[in-house]
């Protein structure tokens, strides 16, 4: 390997002021060691970049490129899904004739939703639980995009953005439960409120742990993945309650069970990859630019969120056609 390919940044004080997007891990020592993250990713690191250089790095190949673009595309996709959530009229889901209904203005649908909330629902099934989840997904994906694109600016900026990135994951997990719990316990408001409160409480505890600088270190990667997985498995605590209340006739089991299993399985699969650093752990250097564990984890997050969105819409449609008037 030539000196041009692998310059000794650590021995050259000017390196702290140079800017590159294809640096080897071994030369990021001393004051630059904070730029390292994964011992099995050998190159493709960026030296400290300015804000505008970080923007330009969107269109360069480095070991964060796939991380940035998977969640940037995911963010755009969920903005579009947010539009669709209110662009399709309710009668589209209730009668065969309405399949030809024209798409109405989003502003009109939002105003109607707000009015429905103010009037106590009047029997109308609200869409705001789906909106909450979609906004939480956007917050998570956008926060991740910003973190991975700007993590090489300064050490302090990296720490702040990393914490916000972890918060985004907790927000996504919390938001994911909102439509599932709301529509599943639609006729049982006391259980609905209890389980929503529990999800919020558990995620507040999780955020408190992840906000600690110690747990942001790379060596606690597996612990972070475990915490996210535990919180994501809270559903297993309210599954039995739903079964005792309605048996398998509850829409969680009869309508969206396999969507939820697909979502959960994809999240867990991604978390296992992330925590174990597979596949780069077994072929260091081969996955420096694409398909490393973190990048595959990003893909899994987007796929799992799509599973969840489709499932949330399906259970909403069920409630439109099988309304309960207790709320």
From TrEMBL:
Its main location: membrane. Keywords: Membrane, Metal-binding, Transmembrane, Transmembrane helix, Zinc. Belongs to the ADIPOR family. This is Adiponectin receptor protein. It is found in: Membrane. The keyword Hydrolase does not apply. The keyword Transmembrane applies. It is a multi-pass membrane protein. One of its GO terms (cellular component) is membrane. Pfam families: HlyIII. InterPro entries: AdipoR/HlyIII-related (IPR004254). Zn(2+) binds at residues 148, 294, 298. The chain crosses the membrane at residues 68-88, 128-152, 164-185, 191-211, 223-244, 256-275, 296-317. GO terms for molecular function: metal ion binding; signaling receptor activity.
């Amino acid at each position: 390997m030539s000196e041009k390919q692998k310059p000794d940044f650590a021995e050259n004080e000017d390196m702290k002021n140079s800017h590159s997007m294809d640096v080897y891990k071994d030369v990021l020592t001393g004051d630059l060691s904070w730029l390292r993250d994964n011992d099995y990713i050998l190159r493709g690191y960026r030296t400290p970049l300015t804000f505008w250089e970080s923007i330009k790095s969107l269109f360069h190949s480095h070991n964060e490129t796939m991380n940035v673009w998977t969640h940037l595309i995911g963010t755009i996709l969920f903005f579009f899904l947010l539009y669709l959530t209110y662009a399709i009229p309710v009668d589209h889901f209730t009668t065969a004739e309405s399949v030809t209904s024209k798409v109405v203005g989003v502003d009109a649908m939002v105003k109607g939703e707000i009015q429905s909330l103010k009037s106590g629902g009047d029997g109308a099934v609200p869409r705001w639980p789906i909106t909450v989840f979609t906004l939480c997904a956007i917050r998570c994906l956008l926060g991740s995009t910003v973190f991975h694109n700007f993590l090489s600016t300064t050490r302090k900026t990296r720490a702040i953005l990393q914490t916000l990135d972890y918060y985004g994951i907790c927000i996504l997990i919390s938001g994911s439960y909102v439509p599932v719990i709301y529509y599943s316990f639609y006729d049982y408001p006391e259980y609905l409120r209890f389980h929503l409160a529990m999800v919020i409480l558990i995620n507040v505890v999780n955020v408190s742990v992840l906000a600690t600088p110690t747990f942001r270190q790379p060596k606690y990667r597996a612990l972070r993945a475990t915490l996210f997985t535990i919180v994501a498995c809270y559903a297993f605590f309210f599954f039995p309650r739903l079964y005792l209340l309605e048996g398998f006739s509850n829409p969680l089991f009869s309508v969206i069970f396999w969507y939820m299993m697909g979502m959960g399985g994809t999240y867990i699969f991604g978390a296992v990859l992330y925590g174990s650093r597979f596949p780069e752990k077994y072929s260091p250097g081969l996955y420096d630019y694409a398909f490393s564990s973190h990048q595959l984890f990003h893909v899994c997050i987007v796929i799992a969120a799509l599973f969840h969105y489709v499932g949330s819409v399906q259970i909403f449609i069920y409630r439109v056609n099988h309304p309960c008037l207790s709320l």
